[in-house]
Automatic annotation (TrEMBL):
This is CASP-like protein. The chain crosses the membrane at residues 43-68. It is found in: Cell membrane. Keywords: Cell membrane, Membrane, Transmembrane, Transmembrane helix. NCBIfam families: A_tha_TIGR01569. It comes from Nymphaea colorata (pocket water lily). GO terms for cellular component: plasma membrane. Homodimer and heterodimers. It is a multi-pass membrane protein. It comes from the Eukaryota. InterPro entries: CASP/CASPL, CASP_dom, CASPL. Residues 1-56 form the Casparian strip membrane protein domain. Belongs to the Casparian strip membrane proteins (CASP) family.
Length: 71
């Protein structure tokens, strides 16, 4: 359950970071990273940390499955 929730949160964070960096011309959203550089650095770092957490959870699931298979 935590792997699914973390993956969803990381994906949502990635979409917000993408919009902050590039904007969306069809909805008239301008990129905001030129005005709020510190915000973009923090959200980008949080997104990277979220995806690292997803990889760690995948590793834990695989490790748990291997331990269950042994017993």
């Amino acid at each position: 359950i935590m792997l699914a929730l973390t993956t969803a949160a990381a994906s949502a964070s990635a979409s917000i970071v993408y919009l902050a960096h590039n904007g969306n011309s069809s909805t008239n959203w301008l990129p905001i990273c030129q005005q709020f550089d510190n915000f973009c650095q923090q959200t980008s770092g949080a997104t990277v940390a979220a995806f690292i957490t997803v990889v760690l959870f995948i590793f834990l699931v695989m490790l748990s499955a291997a331990m269950l298979r042994r017993h």
